[in-house]
Amino acid sequence: MQQCEVDLEAISRMLHISRFQLNRKVKNLKGISMKEYVQAYRLARACMLLRQSSLSVYEIALACGFRDNSYFSRFFKKEKGMTPRQYAGRC
């Protein structure tokens, strides 16, 4: 399973803009910060993996760029209103 690491510095370099400019442009386009955008992407990927794979919650957390499984579970519950296990059980 490939880990989802988002390197904002690398993205900035590829686009030939500063991290500040990248964040400002994302904020203007999406209405959220780059950090919030990345978190939304990771959450969407986690939901997809919970629905479509047999990976453990820990493995999914790592695959989505969360280094701390307990933080991932708290973040997921805050955003989705249920734990990752509860979400996976509904699929």
Structure, described:
It contains 6 helices and no strands. The protein has one domain: Arc Repressor Mutant, subunit A, CATH 1.10.10.60. It has 91 residues and is an all-alpha fold.
Please outline what is shown here.
This protein has 91 residues and is an all-alpha fold. The protein has helices at 8-15, 19-30, 34-52, 57-63, 69-80, 84-89.
Q: Strand portion, in percent?
A: under 5%
What gyration radius follows from the Cα positions, in whole Å? 15 Å
Largest sheet: none
Strands, total number: 0
Give me the CATH architecture, please. Orthogonal Bundle
How far apart are the first and last residues' alpha carbons, in Å?
A: 21 Å
Counting H and I runs of at least 4 residues, what is the number of helices?
6
